[in-house]
Amino acid sequence: MNDSFKNIGITVCVLFFVAYLIFPERGAERFAANAFSPGMTYIINGEERVSWKRTTLETVFPLYQYVNNHAPILANTEDKTTYEMILSQQANDENAVSEDLNQDSTVSTSSKDLSIEKLRDFNYLLNTFYTVDSTTTIGAEQLNADELLSRSMKIDTTTNGPKVLIFHTHSQEAFVDSKAGDASTTIVGVGACLAEKLNAKGIETLHHTGVYDLINGKLDRSKAYEQAEAGVREILKKYPSIEVVIDLHRDGVPETTRLVTEINGKQTAKIMFFNGLSRTKSQGDIAYLKNPYIQDNLSFSLQMQLQAEQMYSGLTRKIYLKGYRYSLHMMPKSLLIEAGAQTNTVQETKNAMDLLANMLCKVLL
């Protein structure tokens, strides 16, 4: 009987240790204990408490304590295979949104309450202006209207040099009437249009046309974000005056969906601001996709969204929140923008750039 109990104890401890090696990011407190003995922790008023069972286990089985004490070390050890898999998933992720696209096919005629009193209501803010992908989570602490709207997105206009950089992680994204081999009819041409509009308004802007989603002449996005980062960082090093980085994309939607509205008598593609939270439900906070500027990113996109509501109701879709990092970690004032989709025309999408430039001026100047 004693030998059996000893064998069971050793087996449990080994299972704990294996669990840490496979899921280091969940830690002793959350994965091993709860997975192998669900009653070891419980929740009271949102706070995790430890039961007598886990306290007993820590006393009887020293290996449990060893693993628990060394969890931070294990958590900092990157699994190269997992890391590469996540980077590959991220490469296509921002085109795989799961919002209700029916809401985007027509102009929104309902006026939204933009008062700070209303925006302080987390549920109102979240439900009115955001779509949270099912793979990630966000809470009231991150979506705090007072905090997000108090962050200044203004650029320094007293110094010389370019202030805005526009680039394209996915340069090959095209539209329904794009011409093969003509980059001016792809998202790159739309980026050139936005740069032209901003320069004309007095915001010196660079448009980077580097290609990061082709490998040996074939479409391959698996390393696009990492390659784009290398190219962008070189530009930021060369031009330290740059304060705003915009990664301009076009979305991918079902062929029956048309993201178009009429503004100032012109058929205009809808745009969407996209944020990455470096957090998924399955992974938790992803330590090796760090972004110290998440709150700045959220502030920038919300301020742009509210400007759109005031200036061009119906132009923007809800801000989309998803799990990875994308290209938003290089500067505090970073935007990832989905301009239209493959079902829009080039002209519809370029029409949106004039409006987007006006909104940027309001937020940045």
List the helices and strands and how they pair.
Blueprint: H1 2-22, H2 27-36, E1 41-44, E2 47-50, H3 52-60, H4 62-69, H5 71-75, H6 80-93, H7 116-119, H8 122-129, E3 130-132, H9 145-150, E4 164-167, H10 187-200, E5 205-207, E6 214-215, E7 218-219, H11 224-238, E8 244-251, E9 260-263, E10 266-269, E11 271-276, E12 279-280, E13 284-285, H12 294-311, E14 319-322, E15 333-341, H13 346-364
Parallel strand pairs: 3-14, 4-5, 4-8, 8-15, 11-14
Antiparallel strand pairs: 1-2, 6-7, 9-10, 11-15, 12-13
CATH topology tier name of the largest domain: Aminopeptidase
Q: Unreliable segments (pLDDT under 50, ≥5 consecutive)? A: 20-83, 102-109
Strand order of the largest sheet: 3-14-11-15-8-4-5
Report the span from N to C terminus: 77 Å
Return the CATH architecture of the largest domain.
3-Layer(aba) Sandwich
What is the molecular shape? globular
Radius of gyration: 24 Å
Structural class of the secondary elements?
Answer: alpha/beta
Key features?
single chain, two-stranded antiparallel sheet, 2 domains, globular, alpha/beta, seven-stranded mixed sheet, 365 residues, Aminopeptidase
What is this structure, in a nutshell?
The chain has helices at residues 2-22, 27-36, 52-60, 62-69, 71-75, 80-93, 116-119, 122-129, 145-150, 187-200, 224-238, 294-311, 346-364; strands at 41-44, 47-50, 130-132, 164-167, 205-207, 214-215, 218-219, 244-251, 260-263, 266-269, 271-276, 279-280, 284-285, 319-322, 333-341. The protein is an alpha/beta fold and 365 residues long.
